[in-house]
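Worked example

This section walks through a single chain of length 265. The input is the sequence exactly as stored; nothing has been trimmed or padded.
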Amino acid sequence: MSTFNQEIKTTILKKNNNLCVGMDPDLKFLPNGYSKNISGVYDFLNDIIQITYSHCIAYKFNIAFYLSLGKEGIEILEQIIKKIKDISKNEKKFLILDAKVGDIENTAKHYAKAFFETWNFDAITINPLLGIDSIRPFIEYSQKGCIILCLTSNPSNKEFEFYGNIPLYLTIASKIYEWNQINNNVMAVVGATNEKKHLIEIKNILKDIPIFIPGVGSQGGDVKTVKEIFGKNILINVGRSILYASDNKENLELKIKEYLRQINL
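Given that input, the structure is written out below as tokens.
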């Protein structure tokens, strides 16, 4: 049976596709034509799936956007996950939970069981600052992916990630390479908003380990640059620029497809 990273690489090559759609609904930004309530969120996400399904290989769900909607938000998350799984029987779509978990080993075991078994996500984002004992419970699920924060896309990443004579992000990259030797199921989060020289440094450490890339779209990262540096083994996440490509339900599909052609994804 293939490992998670093998499956990711194979899917990218087979589909010639690197797109992950960020499914992070915000009531404030729902296009006109959708009710500004729980029902409207479900209808909106359902339409996004219909529009993007043939254009992507993965969907990412940031848990915060569903928790903030309360119990009904979690119910919507579960319904949308089920819907994608139901229509994906003959075509794999990776389902990624963006929770940035990071806790002591005993607690991490329960996070891993919850997200990999109970909810059956294919991968999860992880904060590595507690070290290997907080990450091992996830790595042990060899068919699941551990997407480790390495060099993030937010403006204040320099407060910690660039700290030290050997910057922290390079230390984390080296650890990701080491941890990936266990079950070949560890990826790195590398924001497209960072300088090219820093991306090249990470590429030199991680070799052919797949990279999860946020920061394209509304944050200003460049698709062409990350493709040139990291090659084919990348999963590029685009959220707001797809979800809110239009402020009107009537032409949302047209605007999303125009945007995807524009950025060549």
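What to look for: The two ends are 29 Å apart (CA to CA).
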